[in-house]
Design a protein that fits this description.
Elements (H helix, E strand, L loop, with lengths): L1 H30 L9 H22 L16 H4 L33
Length: 115
């Protein structure tokens, strides 16, 4: 495990060094009044190599991947409480017109009918 952490540290240092070299190259081009076209090949190779080194180090430091169980939270709940979601309760719907006690609005808004 410590070998991969060393690889990870070397990868971060190498990536930081390549970024610093790229910034230094850009400032050198500004000082000499040259136009920027591309980065030198050695900086590009160092950046790509350190990126792959970082990916390899992270994959080995992270350890084995485990399966995510989607139903892990539902194992402890009973069947009666799984579909009981109070935030989805709707009491003001069209079925209230089927009630024998329903009095329709006579052109007034709902806020005017509060008594």
């Amino acid at each position: 495990m410590s070998f991969y952490k060393i690889i990870l540290t070397v990868g971060f240092i190498s990536l930081f060094h390549s970024a610093f070299s790229a910034a230094q190259h850009r400032s050198y081009l500004r000082i000499t009044s040259q136009e920027f076209t591309t980065l030198p090949l050695d900086i590009v190779i160092q950046a790509v190599g350190s990126l792959f080194l970082l990916m390899w180090g992270v994959l080995n430091v992270a350890g084995n991947l485990r399966e995510i169980q989607a139903a892990a939270e539902l194992n402890n709940k009973t069947w009666e409480t799984q579909k009981n979601i109070p935030s989805f309760y709707i009491f003001n719907h069209r079925l209230k017109a089927m009630s024998p006690y329903y009095v329709p609005n006579e052109g007034k808004g709902d806020l005017e009918n509060l008594e």
